[in-house]
């Protein structure tokens, strides 16, 4: 019986090759898109979930309630961790987590650059980073111990056994010997915590001077709570801890007029669950919106739904061409169950072939997808039980609904009508039309959202930032050479290069360079009895002229004033913050040093357009790290200038990695997430329209087949090609207009909410909706007209003989 059903199913599918091809292609493409998007979404949603203790792991952050706003900061003072460990038995493990950055490692005459993190011994006991060699209980017992990743072990030691070997490591211009005490598995790609090597926190820069300093926050802190201790309960216990150790801060907040929270607190120590780190906006690096992951699943569901609607509509439409077949089966004794199984079997075969096609295409397109959509995940995620369940459930749901419903409708047709080839399908037309409206609502949503995302991305790329980003080359200095010496050597060497206009240095890059580093330095201090917080930027001579900043008052840093280390230059936001009529009269107190305001520059976007411009103070302090060299070149022949600067840099620092870049590249990288969303939207919209048009084309073909005789009669009676084309097209165009009317307010609401993430954003204009609607309507009209014009110009004699 089953073999017979299968044979007939294949025979019928082969007989109607065009519809079979449309269904399999449409569903196959939909499955491909859904698989790729689901893999990406699951990778995002399962960040840090590999930790066995994930339900009891948290990161600490401080919430400060100031007079006009609430600030959050995830960096902590050095003495906080030992104090918490001593006072709270609820804490099972606690660890500080600091970054040394890229450090130079020597072994057997070779040098390597690796990312080194500093932690406490509890780190390996809290997190699930298994040790391949060594003992996690003792691996970080000594200050000179260092645990390295598997990838680092292979790069440095090759086939040698690493544990017990000595590495000579340069950390902030000082070389020290460290003993490899363990080798751990590489951190998963969906880990918020990344490292090449881990050593004791006591090796953190300036650890000793800050060991008892509660006013300087320099690193992150992670804790593991006892089983049964809730986040809310522990946060309440931390209130007394704040009152004990942050008395001075609380007093100052009261003087400044801070506004307490609902519990009457001005300063709170709070927790972020480890599984929320990737999405948390509280972290200094900024979080990825969880909405992004759900959006990927939603787009995949949209595309799969559109393909399923095509499947349903085409299957229902084919009841006209298969009416007599159904009738004959019933006359020969077939029951409703048998007819249902036969037609559902055909649908199941189509879905199965579509799924296989989708899996094959997804596998082939995966490298391209990861490269072009900036995705970084392992194919191991395909083994995820959640993903397997989603795929299996999705396939069964699609095959049952998309294939089962049309089969149920066809099995219920009246026997006498079907034998004569006459069936009533009014209700089915209403269903078909409703599904088509939903289909084009989803397509319209994707087109409108794509237009708005693209416009916002273009706005961010073209908005003036207040500095010249086109002619500036950014060079990460690294740890292979003394920073001050590197800057002076570059000044001397580049003075001989004709295309170079100026050279300067700074501690913070603009945008995100090829070294991937982003940093932020915010310092608070007292000014005339109130707390002032500002971004501090260590710069060097010619910084303002190199970037083309506008000096509104005062002067630039100048060698004519010695080292000029006793003055600062501030932006307009900082001038407003200190509240002086003449900002040049202000003296700022930093660590006991009195700094005179020498100049005021016009506000510029030293952070991304997600953030509003905040107070900024620039200073020349030789004891602060210098991390980047900026080189301004002439606008002519920029590639040649880049090559010349790169050549000089490698002469000055032969061991340097090739990470130099133009600032315009760096600023664009800040919006990688938006660019990724834009590409996904565009791809989703194209796929949705493509699949919708395939289905629309096939339905128009079916409608014309059903109305062949009517078309012939109208032509004989004098109807023109335009009359017939309009007659067939108007119903479909009406449905598409209804769909766009529904899609417009939904898209406006969703994209208006998305734009709230940007401090600087576009205003959604009506023309965007008109343009997107016009595009969707034009594509649909072309699809309809291709077939209707062909039917309208056909010989009416043949049309009248067709029935």
TrEMBL record:
GO terms for molecular function: transmembrane transporter activity. The keyword Cell division does not apply. Residues 20-239, 470-643 form the MacB-like periplasmic core domain. Its main location: membrane. The chain crosses the membrane at residues 21-42, 291-318, 339-366, 386-413, 434-454, 680-705, 732-750, 762-786. GO terms for cellular component: plasma membrane. It is found in: Cell membrane. Keywords: Cell membrane, Lipoprotein, Membrane, Transmembrane, Transmembrane helix. Residues 298-413, 684-796 form the ABC3 transporter permease C-terminal domain. It is a multi-pass membrane protein. PANTHER family: ABC-TYPE MACROLIDE FAMILY EXPORT SYSTEM PERMEASE COMPONENT 2, MEMBRANE COMPONENT OF TRANSPORTER-RELATED. This is ABC-type transport system, involved in lipoprotein release, permease component. It comes from Sediminibacterium ginsengisoli.
